[in-house]
């Protein structure tokens, strides 16, 4: 059997340090390989080694054979000639992979023309066809900055596959997409092997692996953890790391206890009545009601752009609602409503050690420094981290520090705006677990904004769906 | 609570870069030398920059005249030091006069927004409608040869840079989630300034100040050179260049002295901010 | 032309028209202030300028006083002054006795020639240097040109002018020292200004080339199958040009300032030289006329840069 792509003992080195590998796999036409692992596991290095786009400071060892030709022994120029015609690449951040100054249609048609070798008229016709198939009709004249993340991903897909390459490399194709668009992109990828192509997808998302099926490779810190058929690996993982990745998929989370009898036992901390919000003059929704009780966990679910963040801002009193009221319980000071942010580094002053930030808050609210340290300890943060600046700690650590910062005030309501969407799955689950524990212990309510219904269902006492 | 953070990786500490590069240290050293020269002035070498001696013109450097004498027999070293005093004091003063209100107005405009912002912005646009030196030139022409006119003109054109930079940066910083979070936490405007704004715009302001000082020194010399700034017999570098240019053949090293002083001063100011570009 | 394009073009025109108005008012007010600050009787001075010192007497001065409203309060005089300006009446040169507008129209050509020469010289230097440095960041070319850029940026235009004159004209005798007698006169002043412009713009170009080469969209253009040449011509050049063209707008102030000073250094018969001369000779009508022309030239060049940026960048942002 001739394998369309065959990788034997591939490793990537920085000088003498091995960053990734060794890994081996064979894929024939119609095959799918999913490479799974968290940030920093070295997944992208595999794609770069196959393509020949490793940075100059790194080098690969091992054999890579594509359609019977030893790619790793080819000259760089010969490898580059395979791009687009033999191997297509779906970039990690499609929005940044499109030329910001060229309209969507031309970015695809130029690939049909120059790479596919078609005449202009045929290239344009094929591009128009692709736009129609991908549901991009109407976006032809748009520039990348006006495309949504999902649209940009599809334009990039159309451009990447214009050369009819049999092999598609997709690096984190679902990054930053909401649930609906996530599904659409995965469906698009699943078509590739069905039509006889070969798909290599890189992801940290177990649900993507499950839907694409095929072979799977699990990487951790550059080392191979597990390899096999996706169905088998997902059903019976042999390594505990794979197991924890699977467990971190919100679908597999244990159901948190639903607190259903809050109405009798707990005080109301925040009441929202008939709220309407608008952004830049456009009304997003109206007639929103919510009664929050102490210790309650509420999830707000809805697609991107529906106004979840604006709603939170109105609840926090940061913006004036268009209509309706937000009322805090009378005994509360105005600082008892606090917020967690999607991008943790952006929520801290960039050039100041974290210690100063926390101390400022503790001093203002007359909170004992030792009690702040206790909270940090409960959240698994070592005090030595506080000497660093926000960009010197990991996203997960920073999000937990921001939880600690909010708790210093003694909040009654914590508004969490997609606080884990930029974190790896395991970190995401751990962070939300801690939030749940803290909410129960300190008796504050949490409003969690998310686009993932699974998370909402498993984690929250109740879910409000915005449409 | 389930398993306690087994997977939460701790980030590595970053390797610290040296705080100042070689270029920057060179800049500091040169500035220190210039500052000593400017503070001490001609009295450092005990010579009078204005004292003429028609018997000893175009003298080569010697014990009594360290850098020689000019066409009127005046001591070059004393004149250069006097020029340094004049240029650097004017530069320092105009940077302060321009920098403080410029920065303050920038913060106010970004903080208040609305009409305050538009009003100050319109004023700054009006100042910028003409190239800076052209405005200084015309203002200096109202009162020819006056130090005050130069100082006022330079300050008036320089403040806009601080204003624009501060306003633009402050707008970005103030709209960040970090500031929103601090406000929600109840932190005072003073804390917002100290923790968010100053660390963010401080380095840029220092760079602006260095460039502004360089612009001031250059402008004074340029106007002096084309005879519309300070007037002879003032010992000012640009004026000295005009005076000495005709004697290039007889005494080439004389004209080069003020030229080099000017270049070294500007270079020192640029290097002191690491050879960066204007923000 | 799409409506979005029209909109940004109109916005640029409106912005620059307002700027031109501000230039006129500022120049008018400052010239007026200069007039007021002059010692002695303005009417006598103007009359002397018009008719020559021999032909001038008290009656002529009175006629001028009446005509120009010099006996009226200052604020009214300012109004009359600005009204004359609004009617493009720039008056008569006190020194030459000719209409200012005639003087300026001959000088403008020379100044434009010098400005054009300076821009060409700066591009001839900055384009190859910036691209070479940007294609190999931290390489030998990059480091050397960085050092040279810092050095040349620190040399004020007139000081550089002096040095170039001393070396190339006086010592080597390759080019004429001053004045304008032929194209060879253009070399040194253009080079003086061009070096100053290129000292900064080559670094801007270098940075934008580095950014473009590292950009995700460049790699994607390659991996979707476009050759290096096609990627360069279809994507990289356009994207790299944008910050450079926008930066030319920033450099225009340097260019206009440089024209004033460098023309004086080289006795170039342009507007800048005339302005400095007029200030020195207290010829206020000429000061006003030349400053106004330079200011408007600055506005016009800025408008060109605005439109060029709009042409490159379809997103409809103005520089």
Automatic annotation (TrEMBL), chain A:
Residues 5-246, 270-467 form the ABC transporter domain. It comes from Pacificibacter maritimus. It is a peripheral membrane protein. Its main location: membrane. InterPro entries: AAA+_ATPase, ABC_Ni/Peptide_Import, ABC_transporter-like_ATP-bd, ABC_transporter-like_CS, P-loop_NTPase, Sigma_54_int_dom_ATP-bd_1. Belongs to the ABC transporter superfamily. The keyword Membrane applies. It comes from the Bacteria. GO terms for molecular function: ATP binding; ATP hydrolysis activity. Pfam families: ABC_tran. This is Peptide/nickel transport system ATP-binding protein. Keywords: ATP-binding, Cell membrane, Membrane, Nucleotide-binding, Transport.
From TrEMBL, chain B:
The keyword Secreted does not apply. One of its GO terms (molecular function) is dipeptide transmembrane transporter activity. The chain crosses the membrane at residues 20-45, 86-111, 123-142, 148-165, 204-231, 251-273. The keyword Protease does not apply. PROSITE patterns: ABC_TM1. GO terms for biological process: protein transport. It is a multi-pass membrane protein. Residues 84-273 form the ABC transmembrane type-1 domain. GO terms for cellular component: plasma membrane. It holds the Pfam family BPD_transp_1. Signal peptide: none annotated. It is found in: Cell membrane. It comes from the Bacteria. Keywords: Cell membrane, Membrane, Peptide transport, Protein transport, Transmembrane, Transmembrane helix, Transport. PANTHER family: D,D-DIPEPTIDE TRANSPORT SYSTEM PERMEASE PROTEIN DDPC-RELATED, OLIGOPEPTIDE TRANSPORT SYSTEM PERMEASE PROTEIN APPC. Belongs to the binding-protein-dependent transport system permease family. This is Peptide/nickel transport system permease protein. It comes from Pacificibacter maritimus.
TrEMBL record, chain C:
GO terms for molecular function: dipeptide transmembrane transporter activity. Keywords: Cell membrane, Membrane, Transmembrane, Transmembrane helix, Transport. It holds the Pfam family BPD_transp_1. The chain crosses the membrane at residues 20-38, 108-129, 150-174, 186-205, 244-271, 291-309. Its main location: membrane. Signal peptide: none annotated. PROSITE patterns: ABC_TM1. Gene3D superfamilies: MetI-like. GO terms for cellular component: plasma membrane. It is a multi-pass membrane protein. It is found in: Cell membrane. Residues 108-309 form the ABC transmembrane type-1 domain. Belongs to the binding-protein-dependent transport system permease family. This is Peptide/nickel transport system permease protein. The lineage of its organism: Bacteria, Pseudomonadati, Pseudomonadota, Alphaproteobacteria, Rhodobacterales.
């Amino acid at each position: 059997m001739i394998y369309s792509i065959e990788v034997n003992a591939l490793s990537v080195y920085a000088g003498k340090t091995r960053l990734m590998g060794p890994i081996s796999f064979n894929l024939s036409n119609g095959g799918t390989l999913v490479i799974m692992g968290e940030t920093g596991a070295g997944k992208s290095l595999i794609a770069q080694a196959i393509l020949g786009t490793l940075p100059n400071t790194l080098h690969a060892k091992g054999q890579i054979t594509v359609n019977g030709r030893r790619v790793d022994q080819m000259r760089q120029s010969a490898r580059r000639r395979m791009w687009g015609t033999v191997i297509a690449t779906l970039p990690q951040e499609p929005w940044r992979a499109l030329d910001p100054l060229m309209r969507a249609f031309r970015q695809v048609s130029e690939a049909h023309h120059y790479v596919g070798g078609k005449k202009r008229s045929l290239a344009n016709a094929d591009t128009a066809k692709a736009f129609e198939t991908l549901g991009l009709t109407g976006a032809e004249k748009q520039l990348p900055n006006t495309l949504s993340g999902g649209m940009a991903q599809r334009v990039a897909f159309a451009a990447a596959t214009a050369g009819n390459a049999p092999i598609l490399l997709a690096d984190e194709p679902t990054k930053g997409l909401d649930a609906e668009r996530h599904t659409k992109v995965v469906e698009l990828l699943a078509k590739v092997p069905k039509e006889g192509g070969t798909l290599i997808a890189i992801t940290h998302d177990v649900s993507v692996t499950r839907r694409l099926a095929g072979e799977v490779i699990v990487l951790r810190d550059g080392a191979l953890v597990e390899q096999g058929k996706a169905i088998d690996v997902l059903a019976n993982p042999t390594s505990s790391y794979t197991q924890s990745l699977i467990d971190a998929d919100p679908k597999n989370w244990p159901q948190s206890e639903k607190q259903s009898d809050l109405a009798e036992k707990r005080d109301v901390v925040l009441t929202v009545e008939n709220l309407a919000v608008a952004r830049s003059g456009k009304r997003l929704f109206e007639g929103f009601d919510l009664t929050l009780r102490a210790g309650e966990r509420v999830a707000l679910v809805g697609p991107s752009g529906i106004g979840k963040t604006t709603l939170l801002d109105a609840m926090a009193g940061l913006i004036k609602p268009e209509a309706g009221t937000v009322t805090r319980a009378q005994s509360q000071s105005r600082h008892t409503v606090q917020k967690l942010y999607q991008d943790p580094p952006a929520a801290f002053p960039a050039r100041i050690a974290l210690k100063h930030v926390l101390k400022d808050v503790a001093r203002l609210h007359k909170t004992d420094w030792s009690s702040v340290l206790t909270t940090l300890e409960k959240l698994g943060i070592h005090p030595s981290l506080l000497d660093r600046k926000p960009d010197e700690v990991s996203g997960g650590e920073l999000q937990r520090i921001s939880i600690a910062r909010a708790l210093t005030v003694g909040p009654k309501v914590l508004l969490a705006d997609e606080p884990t969407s930029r974190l790896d799955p395991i970190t995401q689950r751990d962070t939300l677990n801690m939030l749940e524990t803290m909410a129960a212990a300190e008796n504050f309510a949490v409003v969690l904004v998310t686009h993932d219904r699974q998370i909402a269902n498993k984690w929250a006492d109740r879910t409000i769906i915005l449409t | 609570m389930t398993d306690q953070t087994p997977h939460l990786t701790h980030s590595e500490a970053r390797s610290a870069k040296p705080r100042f590069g070689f270029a920057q240290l060179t800049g500091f050293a040169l500035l220190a030398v210039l500052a000593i020269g400017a503070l001490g002035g001609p009295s450092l070498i005990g010579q009078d920059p204005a004292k003429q001696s028609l018997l000893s013109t175009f003298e080569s450097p010697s014990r009594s005249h360290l850098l020689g004498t000019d066409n009127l027999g005046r001591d070059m070293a004393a004149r250069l030091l006097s020029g340094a005093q004049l240029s650097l004091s004017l530069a320092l003063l105009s940077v302060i006069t321009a920098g403080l209100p410029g920065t303050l107005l920038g913060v106010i405009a970004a903080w208040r927004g609305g009409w305050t912002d538009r009003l100050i912005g319109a004023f700054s646009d009006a100042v910028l409608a003409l190239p800076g030196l052209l405005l200084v030139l015309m203002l200096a022409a109202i009162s020819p040869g006056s130090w005050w006119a130069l100082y006022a003109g330079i300050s008036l054109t320089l403040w806009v840079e601080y204003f624009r930079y501060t306003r633009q940066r402050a707008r970005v910083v103030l709209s960040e989630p970090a500031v929103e979070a601090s406000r929600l936490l109840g932190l005072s405007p003073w804390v917002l300034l100290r923790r968010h704004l100053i660390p963010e715009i401080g380095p840029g302001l220092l760079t602006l100040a260095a460039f502004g000082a360089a612009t001031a020194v250059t402008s004074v010399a340029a106007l002096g050179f084309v005879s519309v700034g300070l007037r002879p017999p003032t010992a000012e570098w640009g004026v000295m260049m005009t005076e000495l240019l005709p004697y290039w053949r007889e005494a080439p090293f004389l004209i080069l002295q003020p030229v080099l002083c000017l270049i070294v001063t500007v270079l020192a100011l640029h290097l002191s901010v690491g050879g960066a570009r204007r923000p | 032309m799409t409506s979005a394009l029209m909109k940004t073009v109109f916005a640029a025109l409106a912005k620059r028209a307002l700027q031109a108005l501000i230039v006129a008012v500022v120049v008018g007010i400052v010239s007026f202030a200069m007039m007021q600050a002059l010692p002695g009787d303005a009417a006598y001075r103007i009359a002397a300028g018009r008719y020559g010192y021999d032909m001038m007497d008290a009656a002529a001065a009175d006629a001028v006083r009446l005509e120009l409203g010099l006996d009226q309060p200052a604020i009214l005089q300012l109004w009359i002054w600005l009204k004359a300006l609004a009617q493009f009446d720039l008056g008569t040169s006190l020194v030459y006795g000719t209409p200012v507008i005639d003087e300026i129209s001959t000088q403008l050509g020379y100044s434009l020639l010098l400005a054009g020469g300076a821009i060409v010289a700066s591009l001839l230097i900055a384009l190859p240097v910036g691209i070479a440095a940007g294609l190999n960041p931290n390489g030998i070319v990059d480091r050397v040109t960085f050092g040279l850029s810092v050095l040349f940026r620190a040399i004020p235009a007139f000081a550089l002018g002096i040095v170039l004159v001393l070396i190339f004209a006086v010592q080597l005798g390759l080019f004429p020292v001053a004045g304008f007698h032929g194209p060879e006169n253009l070399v040194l002043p253009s080079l003086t200004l061009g070096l100053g412009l290129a000292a900064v713009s080559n670094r801007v170009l270098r940075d934008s080339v580095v950014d473009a080469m590292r950009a995700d969209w460049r790699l994607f253009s390659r991996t979707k199958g476009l050759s290096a040449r096609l990627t360069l011509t279809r994507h990289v050049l356009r994207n790299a040009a944008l910050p450079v063209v926008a930066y030319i707008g920033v450099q225009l102030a340097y260019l206009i300032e440089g024209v004033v000073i460098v023309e004086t250094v080289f006795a170039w018969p342009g507007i800048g030289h005339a302005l400095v001369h007029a200030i020195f000779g207290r010829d206020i009508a000429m000061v006003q006329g030349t400053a106004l022309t330079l200011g408007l030239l600055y506005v016009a060049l800025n408008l060109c840069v605005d439109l060029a940026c709009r042409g490159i960048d379809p997103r409809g942002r103005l520089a």
